[in-house]
Design a protein that fits this description.
Elements: H1 2-10, H2 13-51, E1 56-57, H3 65-68, E2 72-79, E3 85-91, E4 105-115, E5 121-130, E6 149-156, E7 178-180, H4 185-192, E8 200-203, H5 223-264
Parallel strand pairs: 1-2, 3-7, 5-8
Antiparallel strand pairs: 2-4, 2-6, 3-4, 4-5, 6-8
Helix pairs in contact: 1-5, 2-5
Length: about 260
């Protein structure tokens, strides 16, 4: 046993350390992918449970984020289209079994709504629209109701964030279409001086022909991909171990044959 240990480990320090590094990286990354899948499943279950709770009304009173987060909410008011913000680099929402190109880039249209019967302004993610592939500044045509409307959606803390280089400054221009990478509720409150809820409402209405897509992907989207990545990482760890073990055993066998030949001589 000591001879085998020496042949596999003591005489192959560099190979052993390299194998341990590959195994550690593979197992660590694999478990991380599994944890990502578990987190998505848990979030989806919590979201589903909260959506089964009674529907909130944004016009009733000022709701906190902890009270309203991930719950269904209705609201009544008028849109303020001149203050709309187009969030760039947003992939097309793809529901399970949906048809389309999930790699297609576009915008989320964030538009404030002044709630009926008060001065509070609720920011609404009205949906997704495709980006002009030839000119990023050319915004897609959409229809916005001019009167009082009733809407329904789900409450989120923000519309999702994308990676941006450096620290982007939120534009304060209100007389031109605003294209931003990310959305900051606090920054908008400072620009306009509005009283705002600490959340946004993502519309869930389908079938309305206003030029926007609202077929939102479930939170469990990508779970299968995480499992596939985890399998690949664990396979890498197993391959590293087997390569180290097999190469060591082959070397141990060759050394044994050489010693036997030397003894015969």
């Amino acid at each position: 046993m000591n001879k085998l240990f020496n042949a596999l480990v003591s005489k192959r320090i560099v190979a052993t350390v390299s194998a341990l590094a590959v195994i550690a990286i593979g197992c660590g990354a694999g478990y991380w992918q599994l944890s990502r899948a578990t987190t998505k499943i848990t979030l989806a279950a919590n979201l589903q449970a909260r959506q089964q709770m009674p529907i909130l009304n944004a016009n009733d009173r000022a709701w906190t984020l902890s009270e309203a987060a991930e719950r269904r909410m209705i609201a009544r008011g008028r849109y303020i289209p001149e203050a709309a913000i187009w969030l760039d680099n947003r992939p097309r929402p793809m529901p399970v079994g949906g048809v389309g190109n999930p790699a297609q880039a576009g915008f989320y249209l964030m538009m404030p709504m002044r709630l009926d019967g008060g001065d509070e302004v609720l920011w609404v993610n009205r949906g997704w629209a495709p980006r002009n592939p030839e000119n990023r500044e050319t915004l897609p045509p959409i229809d916005t109701p001019t009167g009082v409307v009733n809407i329904e959606g789900i409450v989120f803390a923000h519309p999702g964030k994308v990676y941006e280089l450096g620290s982007e400054k939120t534009s304060s221009a209100t007389n031109a279409p605003r294209i931003e990478q990310n959305f900051d509720l606090n920054a908008q409150a400072k620009i306009y001086g509005w009283t705002q809820p600490p959340f946004i409402l993502r519309l869930e209405e389908a079938g309305i022909k206003d030029g926007l897509l609202r077929e939102w992907a479930p939170l469990t989207t990508g779970v299968d991909r995480h499992y596939a990545y985890a399998f690949q990482w664990f396979a890498l760890a197993a391959a590293g171990f087997l390569f180290w073990l097999i190469s060591g055993l082959r070397q141990y066998g060759r050394e044994g044959v050489v010693k036997e030949d030397s003894g015969e001589r």
